């Protein structure tokens, strides 16, 4: 039984496929099959029921938590030694908070610690959940509450709550009028744009999707371009748009029958003991201070 066999076993469980696992690990399918055969010999029986779909046997399900515990301990020790040798840490973050919440603290941190190797990785919640599962990062900003089965129960270091404002170009907002109903908004607005901000899309957003004439799910940059051009309405996070609303570049639309919308996120440690490291604690403190300055800090639980 070796580490490559355990990693292959874990990857197959997560991907549900020998072929996908081989591609993710950059090895041939024959290599994956040989590793699993050797692991099954060591474990005393089949770990997978092979067929049209790959499923764990009872033996495989019993073995899984032990395999993951071994892998987690190994990766955690590798990360600890790397951090001690180089002064290295990694922050993973939701893309949507990079410009407002993450960029200023990271710049200040690197100015204070010019010799530290800091990596910042951005992605969607599901990407970050996988990095946390693999113990690849010391700190992460994820969607909250966490319902991802990949992750063990997490205790957040801090909770953030951002208002999601329904906005439009000023001319489109004027055509819709003040204090409209949602029916009025979607009678005038040509398109409703949405984003993958939540693990589970709120029912209010789903209801608005059903009422809109046309909808688009897209990243921030193209949705913002459509909104600026008067071709769509959509929710944007308050830290991203409050200055533009104040300057008149954008207008907030406040339908009388739309509930308040917020997006919650959390700052979490990548693994046990990470938050106690001085460099990690310093970066966490800067992120929390920035959240407080943006008025999005819901709770500081450090």
TrEMBL record:
PANTHER family from the xrefs?
A: HTH-TYPE TRANSCRIPTIONAL REGULATOR, HTH-TYPE TRANSCRIPTIONAL REGULATOR GLTR
Report the residue ranges that make up the HTH lysR-type domain in this protein: 1-57
Q: Which Pfam families match?
A: HTH_1 (PF00126), LysR_substrate (PF03466)
Picking any one GO molecular function of the record gives: transcription cis-regulatory region binding
As for family, the record states: Belongs to the LysR transcriptional regulatory family.
Could you tell me the keywords of this UniProt record?
DNA-binding, Transcription, Transcription regulation
The protein's name in its UniProt record: DNA-binding transcriptional regulator, LysR family
Record's superkingdom? Bacteria
Origin species, per record, is Kaistia soli DSM 19436
- SUPFAM superfamilies from the UniProt entry: Periplasmic binding protein-like II, Winged helix' DNA-binding domain
């Amino acid at each position: 039984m070796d580490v490559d066999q355990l990693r292959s076993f874990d990857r197959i469980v997560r991907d549900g496929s020998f072929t996908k696992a081989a591609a993710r690990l950059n090895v041939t399918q024959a290599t994956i099959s040989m590793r699993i055969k050797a692991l099954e010999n060591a474990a005393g029986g089949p770990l997978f029921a092979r067929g049209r779909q790959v499923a764990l046997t009872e033996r495989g399900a019993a073995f899984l938590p032990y395999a993951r515990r071994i892998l987690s301990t190994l990766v955690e020790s590798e990360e600890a030694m790397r951090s001690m040798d180089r002064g290295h840490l990694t922050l993973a973050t939701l893309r949507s908070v990079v410009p407002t919440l993450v960029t200023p603290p990271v710049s200040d941190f690197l100015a204070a610690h010019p010799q530290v190797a800091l990596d910042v990785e951005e992605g969607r919640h599901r990407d970050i959940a996988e990095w946390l599962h693999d113990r690849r990062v010391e700190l992460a900003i994820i969607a909250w509450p966490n319902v991802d089965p990949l992750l063990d129960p997490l205790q957040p270091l801090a909770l953030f709550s951002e208002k999601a404002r329904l906005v439009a170009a000023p001319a489109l907002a004027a055509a819709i009028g003040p204090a409209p109903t949602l029916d009025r908004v979607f009678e005038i607005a040509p398109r409703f744009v949405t984003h993958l901000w939540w693990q589970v899309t709120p029912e209010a957003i789903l209801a608005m999707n059903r009422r809109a004439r046309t909808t688009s799910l897209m990243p921030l940059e193209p949705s913002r371009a459509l909104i600026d051009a008067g071709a769509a309405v959509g929710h944007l996070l308050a830290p991203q748009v409050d200055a533009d609303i104040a300057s008149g570049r954008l207008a907030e639309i406040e339908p009388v029958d739309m509930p308040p919308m917020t997006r919650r996120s959390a700052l979490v440690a990548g693994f046990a003991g990470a938050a106690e490291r001085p460099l990690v604690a310093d970066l966490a403190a800067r992120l929390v201070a920035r959240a407080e300055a943006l008025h999005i800090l819901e709770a500081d639980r450090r």
